[in-house]
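Data availability (excerpt). The following record was deposited with the supplementary files.
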Amino acid sequence: MATRPRDVVVVGASAGGVEALRAMVSGLPINLRASVLVVLHMPAGGTSALPAILSRAGPLPARIARDGEPLEQGRIYVARPDHHMLVVNRAVALSHGPTENGHRPAINATFRSAAIACGGAVTGVLLSGVLDDGVAGLLAIAGQGGRTVVQDPSDALYHGMPENALRALTPDHVGPAADLGPVLAKMTSEVADNSDDAAPDVLRWENEIASAGRTQQGAETVGTPSEFACPDCQGVLAEIEGDAMRYRCRVGHAWTAEALLAAQGSALERALWTALRTLEEKTALSTRMAQEARQRGSHRVAERYDQMARETHEAAAVLRRQVMERG
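Predicted structure:
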């Protein structure tokens, strides 16, 4: 069987990720025989200072990825805000495809595309973060014969992503971020089997959604319609077949069960605060209308408005206690 260098490294991080990334790249050698693609969750409208941070932290130059540029060894490519960063034909491809777990760029999108494009030649690294973005991508990399590396949860500022990864698979290496540079240098000096086996259909379908934003197959043809609505568009979510609970809506938004639960919690909290504001506004308006009714001599009407104000004030007090206890 033919072999090829293990020359592509994809790295995902979220909360606490800048510190972990700085520690990791500080240990990379200047002659690293691989391209490094970094995805960090970031606001859509912002600019990223991460390339400058990583360039100062280690010997390899880092820059914001540009659509269509070929991958070069010894360089770090950082995902652009509000764009998925994908690997296509040994080059970077930027996409404005649907968000995954509410994120664009999404770690899963990058990992999945690298698994399809590079097979066993890719190494996936998951660092500090909350929830579980990147776990499905690590599973895709492992399924295509690639290597997987996870930051030791006890070393991560936020241990959710590393812990979820360790629950889902057994990585090739687990360790502190500061120790991962030499580990990656060793892994990228190896060769991988250059298998011609096609990636699973579901993996290719999800990659098509991330790259083009649309596909000929709807989620309902690949999964089973669920009773849940997409937090992004309110469309019906279909549960995608696989080892973990994951969902897609008709337009392509993707959610893991954990991320969906967190999004539902945020929506519920917003609804509760909206209800509380409405009750307090109703109390204030009822009180004012009672005062005006008294000034006109309409005491019976004023009493009715007073009663309404008392009821809404009591309801607001109960709801406020519930909201504060949730916090």
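Summary of structural features: Residues 257-295 form the longest helix (39 residues).
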